[in-house]
């Protein structure tokens, strides 16, 4: 920190030159600087700049107590000098005299509120004496002061213009001079995030938060990075801290709720939404979020009310309309259809900006008209919704088919035999794989009704592991998938399996020995699962190709599943899935247990008995009364699995058969071969 002292009598030109020379020695040669300062004081006893210089040298030489004594005496003679207050504060901090440091820094920040370093040091000292709330506010003041810093403004501008290298250079130079600058550290973390270096980004943003725990925006960013890395417990810990901020920011409570939702704690999330709505009820997004949580908890009537409130406050809110339609057990009436058509008319002038509302409304109208048996009009809306959604997604069916074939070519019988034993022996995981809308949620609900099985949710951990392995190919470490997989040693496989079990532990809320991972896309990784978790069970949930694909195509998914928005692409995806599962079944017979939805509907007791026998579990009657099991269900079938099995959906696709030619053509021989 730089500021000028104010001696009573200005020193002579010679003394000023001597002081200037001594100051240049301060950092590199503090002993020499001290000697010159003492020499000057012999010529001009008590000269304030020389006294300050001597104390600065003493502190750098590790003699903070001596420095503090001289600084305190000087401060009594020269009160309120910023440079003196700064040095006094640092010496007091180093000697553990927080009260004196705080007094100096409070005086300093009153005089120079735009100097961020004074606020950050004040915050650290306040924390030492337990004045946490005041420390938090001091950090916030420091960040506010940093927002006007020229270097940081220049770096932020370069970053926002896409000149990431220029921004990084500015910040690296600054941090070489001020290594504990939290604002620069956080900004550099964002640059690394934009570059795609998540590890470096996390390290930097964590350091910024550690340096200035009251830096709310850095902690907010850190939580989002942790969520992206699926470090949910860490994200929750930081969200709990952020929720205590002295700033009254509802966004922090919302961020905490989103972490709780990811952790499966819908009840706490709902309580946060209800609390916020009690203060300000005209918030459609909050009503929608509440509806999602209540739906997952099985509180259908309350969820319907929440969604209705959302569209009451914002009639064009397409996602809220879709959320109502997506309850499956709710039928939207003529009045709702008229309201949604009016919403589309209202949105038409700003179609590009409101495309998400528009395609949600088309999906919702498709469902409403389907329930009204107007299948032609229903298909028209589904088709428009899918076409619009598809324009917003990146998906290459040819590229995906090539990846699937590479996987099938790798996990042959010979390869599996050659791989021998290895992996984590834990029998805990039960994977339910297949396509969305294949009956997997029904299987999950049946198994979760068993006393030894816990239902969790669609867990991303296996896909994260697989993606990390794929990145080794993308980055050139291995030429192809087979070479990379073959490189995994038994120890590697054990480590990866243990990583999966450990990372999924956060989702397990009971002491039941087995748990379900219902991520449907894990069919792509059945070979990897076999390698790293040889004792895990895999259930292939399969449904008639036309029924499954059509049901997926008319379903709008909150995220992922980019292949579902085109009839040809979803048909090809289903064919790729069938081909890989057939290849794996030939390579490892009986390792995967297949459940056909139509057979489960036709003979539930028999299919459940066969399923439990595959899992090595004793039969329990509760599995047949699965709809009575109370648990959170997050998928599109959440309401359907809370009632006994019904047969209405088995052949429902036939109502739309006249328009499903592209799907039928894409599926080809797979249709005739089903269920074999």
UniProtKB/TrEMBL annotation:
The keyword Nucleotide-binding does not apply. It comes from the Bacteria. Residues 256-310 form the Bacterial transcriptional activator domain. One of its GO terms (molecular function) is protein-tyrosine sulfotransferase activity. Coiled coil: none annotated. Keywords: TPR repeat, Transferase. TPR repeats lie at residues 182-215, 284-317. SUPFAM superfamilies: P-loop containing nucleoside triphosphate hydrolases, TPR-like. The keyword Nucleotide-binding does not apply. This is Sulfotransferase family protein. It comes from Sphingobium terrigena.
